[in-house]
Amino acid sequence: MKAEVIRWHQFSRRxxxxxxxxxxxxxxxxxxxxxxxxxxxxxxxAQTTAPRDGGSEREVEVGEVTVTASRVPMPMEQTARIVSVxxxxxxxxxxxxxxxxxxxxxxxxxVRQRGGFGIQTDISINGGTHDQIVILLNGVNISSPHTxxxxxxxxxxxxxIERIEILEGAASRVYGTSAFSGAINxxxxxxxxxxxxxxxxxxRGAVGVNGGSFGTWGVNGSIxxxxxxxxxxxxxxxxxxxxxSDFKKMxxxxxxxxxxxxxxLNWQLGMSRMDYxxxxxxxxxxxxQYEEGRRYMGSVSLKTKGRVKLMPTAYFNRALDHYQLIxxxxxxxxxxxxxxxxxxxxxxxxxxxxxxxxxxxxxxxGILSTALGRPLAEDQxxxxxxxxxxxxxxxxxxxxxxxxxxDVLLDRWTFSFGLMANMNTGLDYRxxxxxxxxxxxxxxxxxxxxxxxxxxxxxxTFTDLYYKSxxxxxxxxxxPERTSxxxxxxxxxxxxxxxxxxxxxRHNSAMIDWVMTPDDVVNDFTTYHATNFRLDNMGFTxxxxxxFAELMGRESILRTxxxxxxxxxxxxxxxHEIVASSYALDYLRHKLVLRLDAQLCKRLSATLSYxxxxxxxxxxKYEAGKSTAQSYAPYGLLDLRLSYTGRHFxxxxxxxxxxxxxxxxLGNVLQxxxxxxxxxxxxx
Length: 684
Known about the structure:
6 helices, about 675 residues, disordered N terminus, mainly beta
């Protein structure tokens, strides 16, 4: 008996619409990884792909896909912001082992990965830094005020993800002050009530194993019941592809919800643990660093179903970090514990003149540390969990934001006006305003024009303010970063083709970076110090996406081909000589991403991807105790993944960096060559 396959042509406005399929198998038309989607329901019908299991088709009309590019979620084709969406189908076939690996395939995202499988990764958007973006899990801000280096320590795996939304540009009026250059929202999968023929709600799950080069292996599993929730967990370890890059990581994630009469209720809990050799992560002068991280998070949210929708969310994040400059010793050893509590309340209603949203966010950020913060009195010391010693320093700040937005959706136009009023006790008790406006115009169903202007602010992290080591020195006198950004773009949707062009200009005042000047280089001893300076980032991205099913029919072996290119340029407004920059000035000038997807036979698919990039800036290379400034060399990487998809069994073979090219993406951290992985999963 063949499985019934439902063909999706539209998506609903509900955030959980993709789960409401009553247990049937779903085939969803793919969306471009790094392109603004402009397809209307009519043009979306043009794209079809053959069912991988050979099942029969029938068409079902549902609503449109919605994204959270504004305070009010709206259909993708009507939003006036740059939003890239990585769908479930793309995530499944992508040659990647972590969320960080997935983001490498987006042209506007810079992923500076220090280790494999998502170990210590800096993620930025359009020439920003790793501290200038917000990472959200189901819309909940899980970013850390300690440092953006640890922002990607996530409690989920690729199998847990339904889609990834990437919002480019200043987004403070949507996601708060930390969304300085963009935001990444990871939406997880879930189960909705379904019944078997016996009238019972089934239990679903999967168990998987993987293994590969450099002693890498892992196990993972998930189990879920629609009325109870889903639980996933995993463990991975590796010797690493280079010296002192071994790691062990664990994760666990639970998600549940309830659809009550008057409200929808959702909750999530997660934890992650990472222990890894940190090689030359923070300084090439010390190649034997080590770090341990523990992270715990939870949130509860609800949404009322009346005409005026109230959406409160309460959340909590705790991060524990243990760092050793020289592994196995107490030299420059640091311990940190960061706690974040937050309460966000949103309200929205639709009336004659559009949709109005009001919101407030209260977020308390605190840190106990042996190195970061203000000194405590001896009777205020706090014991370090699991270790001898005490936290002897502390800092705390409260961030209060109020939001107002009004959206007008017309047949051809979308207008979104917004304003954030923000006060942070770490700065002063004065409220500052950050406005923004987004506009899009759709001359036809196939063509879209859009423009936006937004302002944003970011407070320095606790590391920016206080960190001090033999090679780094923070600055308590740092000013908050501020930006004003303008974007302009167009998108085109034709039979078998999606294409877009977008441009941006971001004026950053009081930009924060860790830099080295000639005065910081004395007798081969180098120090990076945190400082402010004015900097403009400007650039463009072009993308094209061919849909072979529309061009050649559903029987075509080739499914999709995408090509995306990003160009960036900077202008600095001071003439002080900088020998090396850790982050802001080491931007990607060029990035090209190519991807080809093919269906080789009924159950076997292949994805071939190529990424070429050139980074500006330089780093200090240490050899025989001497340091010299080195420029980054351009490089290209070729990856291939073969995937077998069965009804109860999946398997894959994946080769990363097929040409075994050795390269530097951040400082002295030499990246490994060819890495082979294979894995299998049993589904029930």
